[in-house]
Design a protein that fits this description.
Shape: globular
Radius of gyration: 24 Å
Structural class: alpha/beta
CATH topology of the largest domain: 2-enoyl-CoA Hydratase, Chain A, domain 1
Distance between the termini: 48 Å
CATH architecture of the largest domain: Alpha-Beta Complex
Number of strands: 23
Number of domains: 3
Helix content: 25-40%
CATH superfamily of the largest domain: 2-enoyl-CoA Hydratase, Chain A, domain 1
Strand content: 15-25%
Number of helices: 18
CATH class of the largest domain: Alpha Beta
C-alpha cells in the first residue's frame, strides 16, 4: 500500500482530535433528545416502515438509520458522534482501564499474528510466550493465513477471567511448534505510560488519555516520585486527545489550593456549573510544567488551562488543539450510543478555547494543515490570536481564548522547516513495525546485551537508520531523513529499547534529547 505524505499531518491531527471531554460517566436515559419534535420523529419512523414494506428492493434499513443519525449529528458540531454497536464495546473498554485477556502486544505481520512483546507479569509472559512468537491456533481456530481484522483476533483471545485457552505457537528462533495453556486474567490498559525521575530532582509523568483509572495511576506515580525526592514535576500531555473531565479535574486538584476554580461549564440554558479545588492537594507548592502540542485536546486542555489560569504551572510546547465542548454519552438498546455535546467548558479566567467549526467538519479537522502552512509549528509569532479574546490571570499574565491553549514557553516541532511530515510519521507506529521486523530477522544481534551495552551499540552505528530509510521508501513514502537524522535515530533506538527491555527504557532514551524537556531542564540550571 502506498501512502501520500501530504496527508500525514491531517491524519494525525484527526486521530487525536477524536479525543473527548465526557461530562459524566453515567449514561443518560434514552429519550427524545435527538429528535426534539414528535412530528419529525414520527415522519422518520414512517419512512423506514415504507421502505421496509413497499420499496422495490430489499434494503438493510438499519444502515439507513445509521446514516440518518450520522447526518443529523454532522449538522451540530464536530464532536457529537454516533458510535455503532460494533465499535461501542471497544471504545468503552479503552476508557474503562482494563480488560480480560491473555496479555500480549501483537499485530498482523504478513499472514500471521506476531507477538511484539508479552505484557510484563501477564498471563502470556508467565506461561512462557516470547517476543517474535507467531500464534497459529487459538484452541482449534486457525489464526494464520487469514488476514483477520484486529477485532476478530481480540474476540478469540479475550474471555472470562480464569478461563483457559490453548495456543499453538511457532517459535522462529527454535524452528518449533509449541503449545501453551494460558489462564485469562485482568489486563490493565494503562493511561499513564511512565512516571520517572529526571535530573535536578525533576519528576516526569506521561498521560496518554484520561480514562477511568487515570487519576489513580497518576496519584500512584506522583507519590512514588515524591518519596524519591522530587521537587518539581513535568506532566506530558502531548498527543493526549482527552477523555473523562473528572479525571483531569482530580489531577488539577493535586496542585491547586482550596477553593481555587478549576473549570466551569455552561449549557444552552445558561446554567453554570463550577468546580473548585479542595484541601486535598498533595503538590501545591513545587514547580509544575505541562507539555502540550497541536494534538493535546479536551481534558488535556482543561488541566493545562486550570494550571495556567491560576498561575500555578508553566505551559511548554505548541498551541493545543482547541476543543472546549463537553459530551454526554447516551446508550441505545441495540448497543450503540451517541455522544452529544451538552455544554461548553471554560477555563478559570473565563475563556473558551474551542476553535471555530462553522465551516464544517472537514475544514475543522483540516485546521492542523493551516498551522503547518502558517509556520505556527516553528515560530510563536505565527500563532493567530484575537485581542478580543484576551484574558488576565490573577498575577496579570495575558492568556488567550478562541482556539486552544497558547503555551507560556514555545518550543518548535522537532524537524527542519518544511519537513514536519517526518515528525508526524514518527507518531504513526511505523517505527514499531520496522523495529519488530528487524528484530525478527535476527534477534541474536542483541542477545545478552545489558542496557548500557545496547546504547553503545546503537550510538556507534548508522545501520538501522539506513535500513529505516529504505523501509520507508518501500512503503511508498517519499520522505528523506538527512536533515532530521538525530530525531529519527532517537526514535529508532527508543523503540528498540521498548521491545527489548520494556516501556520505561523507551522513555529513558526518548526523553534525553527531547526539545521540550531540554528547555525546562536548561531553565532550571
Amino acid at each position: 500500500m502506498k501512502f501520500n505524505s501530504t496527508y500525514l499531518p491531517i491524519l494525525i491531527g484527526a486521530v487525536f482530535a477524536l479525543g473527548i471531554v465526557l461530562g459524566s460517566k453515567m449514561n443518560a436515559p434514552e429519550d427524545d433528545r435527538i429528535l426534539a419534535k414528535n412530528y419529525s420523529k414520527t415522519k422518520l419512523n414512517k419512512l423506514i416502515d415504507f421502505i421496509n414494506t413497499e420499496y422495490v428492493d430489499s434494503v438493510n434499513t438499519d444502515s439507513i438509520v445509521n446514516l440518518t443519525v450520522d447526518n443529523i449529528l454532522s449538522k451540530l458540531d464536530p464532536h457529537s458522534v454516533y458510535i455503532p454497536p460494533s465499535e461501542q464495546a471497544e471504545v468503552a473498554e479503552s476508557m474503562k482501564g482494563d480488560f480480560v485477556g491473555i496479555g500480549i502486544n501483537f499485530y498482523m505481520y504478513r499472514d500471521s499474528v506476531a507477538i511484539i512483546r508479552p505484557v510484563e507479569n501477564g498471563p502470556s509472559a508467565k506461561a512462557g510466550l516470547k517476543s517474535g512468537d507467531r500464534i497459529l491456533f487459538a484452541g482449534k481456530t486457525k489464526l494464520f493465513g487469514r488476514k483477520l481484522p484486529s477485532d476478530s483476533l481480540f474476540s478469540k483471545l479475550k474471555g472470562v477471567k480464569g478461563s483457559e485457552i490453548e495456543l499453538t505457537v511457532f517459535r522462529k528462533s527454535e524452528q518449533k511448534k509449541l503449545k501453551f495453556k494460558i489462564k485469562r486474567d485482568v489486563i490493565p490498559l494503562k493511561s499513564v505510560d511512565a512516571s520517572l525521575l529526571l535530573e535536578n530532582k525533576t519528576g516526569y509523568i506521561k498521560i496518554n488519555r484520561f480514562a477511568e483509572t487515570t487519576y489513580k495511576e497518576f496519584k500512584t506515580g506522583l507519590a512514588r516520585l515524591q518519596q524519591n525526592g522530587m521537587e518539581s514535576l513535568i506532566i506530558d500531555l502531548r498527543d493526549n486527545g482527552g477523555g473523562y473531565m473528572e479525571e483531569a479535574v482530580a489531577i488539577a486538584d493535586e496542585f491547586l489550593k482550596d477553593k481555587q476554580l478549576i473549570v466551569f461549564t455552561k449549557n444552552k440554558n445558561g446554567s453554570t456549573e463550577k468546580t473548585f479545588a479542595t484541601k486535598e492537594g498533595s503538590f501545591e507548592t513545587g514547580k509544575v510544567y505541562v507539555l502540550i502540542n497541536e494534538n493535546s485536546a479536551s481534558a488535556s486542555e482543561i488541566l493545562a488551562g486550570a494550571l495556567q489560569d491560576n498561575d500555578r504551572g508553566t505551559i511548554v510546547g505548541r498551541r493545543s488543539f482547541g476543543k472546549g465542548l463537553v459530551q454526554r454519552e447516551m446508550d441505545f438498546n441495540d448497543g450503540s450510543a451517541v455522544r452529544l455535546t451538552v455544554a461548553r467548558y471554560y477555563t478559570p479566567t473565563g475563556r473558551s478555547i474551542q476553535k471555530p467549526y462553522k465551516k464544517g467538519n472537514d475544514e475543522y479537522f483540516k485546521e492542523s494543515e493551516d498551522r503547518v502552512k502558517s509556520g505556527e509549528l516553528y515560530a510563536k509569532d505565527s500563532i493567530k490570536v484575537a485581542d478580543s479574546l484576551k484574558f488576565k490571570t490573577p498575577k496579570g499574565k495575558i492568556v488567550y481564548g478562541g482556539g486552544g491553549i497558547v503555551p507560556d514557553v514555545f518550543v518548535p516541532i522537532e524537524a527542519e522547516h518544511g519537513n514536519e511530515n517526518v515528525a508526524y510519521l514518527l507518531q504513526t507506529g511505523i517505527v514499531g513495525h520496522f523495529v519488530f521486523e528487524t528484530l525478527d530477522q535476527n534477534r541474536n544481534a542483541f542477545a545478552g546485551l545489558r542496557f548500557n551495552e545496547f546504547l553503545d551499540k546503537m550510538n556507534k552505528t548508522d545501520v538501522y537508520f539506513k535500513k529505516f530509510q529504505n523501509y520507508i521508501v518501500m512503503t511508498g513514502l517519499d520522505l528523506k531523513f538527512d536533515k532530521t537524522k538525530a530525531l529519527v535515530n532517537r526514535h529508532i533506538a527508543a523503540e528498540f529499547a521498548r521491545q527489548l527491555y520494556g516501556e520505561l527504557y523507551y522513555y529513558d532514551v526518548i526523553l534525553k534529547d527531547d526539545a521540550m524537556i531540554k528547555s525546562i531542564l536548561k531553565s532550571k540550571k
